[in-house]
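Recall that a protein's primary structure is simply its ordered list of amino acids. Everything else, from secondary elements to tertiary packing, is in principle encoded there. The following example makes that idea concrete.
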Amino acid sequence: MLSWAALAVMVAIFLVWCWWDASGYGGNNQGSVLAYADRDYQAETYDFDGIIYLRTFRFLQGGLGYHEAFARAFLEDARHETLPVTVTGWRTPFLAWLWGTVLPERGSAVVILFIGASAVTLVVAYALGARLGTRATALVPVVLLMPYFHYAATSRWFPMHEWWGSFWALASITAFAYRRMYLAALLALPALLTRELFVFLAVAGWVACISARHWRGALAWAATGVTFLIYYLWHWSEVSQLVALQPIAAATDNGEANGITFLAFTVAYGWVQPAGPFSPLAAGVPLLGGVGLFFIREQSMRTVVIGTVGLATLFFLVMGYLHHHYSYYWGAVSGPFLLLGYAPLTAAAFQRRLLLGSLFR
């Protein structure tokens, strides 16, 4: 009961903290994010992907189809003269549809929804942490996730699809931890529909069910994968009507950030605000959480969590997406999973301390 009370206090603090900073009172040097989101951006006056997504949302509300709306918002970005020629350069429509269904035509409503979804996800993360460790140690990843989601909620990063997909992904993993395999597969689907990078979660979930001989669960995860495939093929066909698509190729513009530097940057992503860029604390905190994932007692849970993080990391290393421009892809997808490792890690450390204390008593 005490841990739930502590969680309620943390969530309340998080909501006040986010609202204060998003309103421009927190001295974050970015002004009001709510006003930033509501600004009426015109063609050639912006050069950031997040504004493309917000303008796509507004064009949708104005009656344009999704792909036409995205194309217009993309071309009116000051950086772009042509449309993306690979399908991965086009964001899928699910998130914009979701915003259009539940929100009024204001960018600030997206910020408010993000803050609310983050607060709910903190509760979900606590429930997951309690399953991975104990009720007491489950509070540790909640504390660490607070600045992680606060960073996006109070900066221009709130429209990015990777963050929104992580809400669904964490809910899916939580259902998996409580052996609700059908629900886990169902909750994973919006994550995939939001950002195709979460396909690694579906693969890891399917493998975990196969290894545990949970055949019905494996079938549910397979159904999630097939549904996503049908959706993505439709998305591909819509995009191909607007531009001659080229095959997805490995990146060649690795630039100044590659190898270990890239990994440090991505691991630290989301911690730039509280810990400072490239500081040992910024990279070390998530990495230590990653070590904690190996302390998860249940094998199927280790498989799905470590598999999701490992497959995502392997993909970006193999494909060569090592420029810092790509860091938030991997950082936003894997960051929450790494921080969850503190629940089993602190539980194991506490148990070891009790054991040593009893031996030397």
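Residues 354-361 have pLDDT under 50 and may be disordered. Residues 2-352 form one domain.
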